Amino acid sequence: MVFFSTFANMEAVGKLMIIGGAVNKGSFSETDYDQNIEKNLNFFERGILRKIINESRLKEDSVIEIITTASQIPQIVGPEYKKAFEFLGAKNVNILDITTREQANSDVITERATAADVVMFTGGDQLRLTSILGGSRFHDIILMKYLKEDFIYAGTSAGAAAASENMIYQGSSGEALLKGEIKTTQGLGFIENVIVDTHFVQRGRIGRLFQAVVNNPRTLGIGLGEDTGLYIYKDNMTAIGSGLVILVDGRFIKDTNLTNVELGQPISIDNLVVHVLSQNDFYDLKTKDLTIVNSQYNPIPQVN
Known about the structure:
Layout: E1 15-19, H1 42-46, H2 48-55, E2 63-67, H3 74-87, E3 92-96, H4 101-104, H5 107-115, E4 118-121, H6 126-133, H7 137-148, E5 152-156, H8 158-161, E6 166-170, E7 183-186, E8 194-197, H9 206-215, E9 220-224, E10 228-233, E11 236-241, E12 245-249, E13 255-256, E14 269-270, E15 273-277, E16 282-284, E17 289-291
Parallel strand pairs: 1-5, 2-3, 2-4, 4-5, 8-9
Antiparallel strand pairs: 1-10, 6-7, 9-12, 10-11, 11-16, 12-15, 13-14, 16-17
Helix pairs in contact: 5-7
């Protein structure tokens, strides 16, 4: 059995790609899905899916497993991702619709996980994802591959939210800063000391991250806009895509009323630090430094 404390003893060799959601329509598995779903893949085809292939161990020859567990329409979502990856030249793309814990512990599924160079988790319900896969043999194998091998965990929407050690699984945007309105649980544990929220700018979810961070200021809040993601390798996070990444840093909080108000009452926070990243900006998780690539004050020289 793999435990999350493994992170305390080793630096991961693998890479993470966490994505805030699809173009315009939200993640593929949500209620605003329509019959033009292939249009949602335009950005992924041009940007993020291309980067996943380029960063993978064997490039176009890498074995890619699309995990549709979070989705309520896996029969639609899986083939669309497969088609997009194959359009970009990927030769070994498969779909794994794991719907039960028995499947997640089976020899067939674990053999495929062992052979994979990339796992791509689709959108949907992150609690469904963790409740089916969490602590399974499948989960243990991909987590250990991420720690020890040139392996990519990629996830969009629910797949991104579930990547961290802890995850938000419930809480409305409008009531996000009322004590107790945000519900969190353990995620899949690919990155520690962060918590991820998705569809972030479009759905006004910044209050959800504020509460998650004030609950434990050691946690870095990451808000991913749609069409946007983070490429995480070792201690560096680089923004990819057309939108914004919001970081919420609670280390410098001076005061709060969190423990002195009743459930359902508004939370006050003094000195919460917020950063905004756009494409190619990067953040060092170890030093906590943000670098704006197109800075008007400290421009980074372009290399020809």
